[in-house]
Amino acid sequence: MKAPKMMLLALLCSFGLAVSAQEKTTWKEQEQFHGIMSKTFHPSEEGNFKPLKEKSDSLVIIAKQWKASKIPAGYKPKETAESIAKLLKQCETVNAAVKSNKDEKTLGTLMFEAHETFHYIVGECKTHD
After folding, report:
1. What are residue 24's phi and psi, to 5 degrees?
2. pLDDT for 51-104, tens place per residue?
3. Which residues does 105 contact at the CB level (< 8 Å), separation at least 6?
4. Three-state SS across the chain?
């Protein structure tokens, strides 16, 4: 009687580990984008636009890499692709605004919108069981 229970327990534990490993699947390009977004958006929230002005080109480059990458399992493919394309356009708009010396209020608004799109992708574009 104990052997079947132990086998069932082992099976359930291994299934739990498989699910846990799947949930921790990383998307390298998403993480890279998050890194540059964090370094540019959060300082701008506090009125420090220097990092954004120095790295607005990087936002575009990394957004392009993310857009070109394969969408992993666990994301809604169509919605994710459309949202990343939107994010890329927003990053290009931010970069153009930086290059044309737009005021900080405009830069802050544009970055807020891009940041919201990023969070939409990492939250709402995921499939939920």
Report:
1. -90, 5
2. 999 999 999 999 999 999 999 999 999 999 999 999 999 999 999 999 999 999
3. none
4. CHHHHHHHHHHHHHHHHHHHHHHCCCCHHHHHHHHHHHHHHHHHHCCCCHHHHHHHHHHHHHHHHHHHCCCCCCECHHHHHHHHHHHHHHHHHHHHHHHCCCCHHHHHHHHHHHHHHHHHHHHHCECCC
The span from the CA of 104 to the CA of 37, in Å, is: 17
- d(CA 84, CA 8) in angstroms, rounded, equals 42
> For residue range 111-124, what is the model confidence (pLDDT) as tens digits?
999 999 999 999 99
Strand partners, 126: 75
Enumerate the domain spans of the chain: 26-124
**CB-facing half-sphere around the CA of 82: CA atoms within 13 A:** 6
Looking at residue 128, what is its pLDDT?
Answer: 74
